[in-house]
Amino acid sequence: MEKVLAEERIDLGRYDERFYAIVGRGDENIKFFSKFFDVRIVPRGTELIIKGEEDKVREFVNFLKAVLKRLEHERLTAEEVKEYAKQFLKSVEAYKIEEQPGREEKELEEEVILITHRKKAIVPKTETQKKYVEAIKKNDIVFGIGPAGTGKTYLAMAMALQHLKEGKVNKIILTRPAVEAGEKLGFLPGTIAEKVHPYLTPLYDALYDMVDYDKANYMLERNIIEIAPLAFMRGRTLNDAFIILDEAQNATRDQMKMFLTRIGFGSKAVITGDVTQIDLPKKKESGLIEAMEVLKNIEGIEFIFFKQTDVVRHPIVAKIINAYEQYEKAKEQSSGKTEEEESKEGQD
């Protein structure tokens, strides 16, 4: 099959930090990119002329556009741009193998939310996950509701880190209700961090999976990322923050209202939960269930509902969830009695 050749021109704008971050001093990055992307790159002033096989030229141009976009929000050294090139190409290659062959590299790159410190590309894997990510991009408040293993919290964390990286927010706040301890955390031994750590472990797990341990701890120590129980949100106004409320089915009505009214200017909130896993005392109604009814028609708030088919953990997890649901339904049907039957039994 005959190879199609192409030529593209990209103007980097002007001789500034951004320009030298891409080309490197003495054009050292140009030599690296030529070999790495297998294209011929000719620098002419601030313009780069890229020649070679059409798909490879397109791949390098997509990389350039992506790195230029990053450089609008953050400073990168020439070495860091080279590292990003490796991550970029790795994520594109991974998609070619694992996802849908023949898709455009630009489309693939746009779906990558984040590259983790282990060089793993985080991407939405199901249609519902794609809708969820799009909803987070477009709305100030998004509810992700569905069973365990559907990626609700994990993708929200990835989106939060992406927003922080791009300078769209100044901090990330991760919170969840500490149901077992109620609001009486003061009675537990240790510092606040030690008291709440058991309840917030899933959030720490997601964070450390995406960001290396030292960097994560640096951000936690400087309060760039804050992890706290829901009770600690009272009385605050949260501006320029990406806030994730996890396990929201265990938030009371008052806690949910309190949380939603904390959101300030420049902030975005994602609320995740599973209405089939409520651990609240029977007398307390879930704030998540009430919010689904109260807020369903408000512009700027979107609800995304996940199903068993969206489970992205080990394949057996979806089967386990389904088996339990079927078991509960069968149990209800076999032991269920009408109100009339129960009334007669009471009279007897």
Instruction: Tell me the Rg in angstroms.
Output: 25 Å
CATH class of the largest domain reads: Alpha Beta
What does the largest sheet look like? 6 strands, parallel
Number of extended strands = 11
**Second CATH tier, the architecture of the largest domain:** 3-Layer(aba) Sandwich
User: How many helices does DSSP assign?
Assistant: 13
Summarize this structure as a short list of keywords or feature phrases.
2 domains, elongated, single chain, six-stranded parallel beta sheet, three-stranded antiparallel beta sheet, alpha/beta, Rossmann fold, 47% helix, Ribosomal Protein S8, Chain: A, domain 1, 348 residues
Question: In summary, what is this structure?
Answer:
By secondary structure, this protein is of the alpha/beta class.
Provide structural commentary:
GO terms for molecular function: ATP binding. This is PhoH-like protein. Belongs to the PhoH family. It holds the Pfam family PhoH. It is found in: Cytoplasm. This protein is an alpha/beta fold and 348 residues long. The protein folds into 2 domains: 5-91, 2-Layer Sandwich (Ribosomal Protein S8, Chain: A, domain 1); 125-329, 3-Layer(aba) Sandwich (Rossmann fold). It is 47% helix and 16% strand. The protein has 13 helices and 11 strands. It has helices at residues 17-23, 28-37, 54-71, 78-98, 105-111, 127-138, 152-165, 192-210, 213-221, 253-260, 287-294, 315-335, 339-347; strands spanning 5-11, 40-44, 47-53, 114-115, 121-122, 141-145, 171-176, 225-229, 241-245, 268-273, 301-305. The strands form 3 sheets. It has a 6-stranded parallel sheet. The protein has a 3-stranded antiparallel sheet with strand order 1-3-2. Strand 4 (114-115) and strand 5 form a beta hairpin. Helix 1 (17-23) crosses helix 4 (78-98). The N and C termini lie far apart (87 Å). Mean pLDDT is 81; it is low at 94-108.
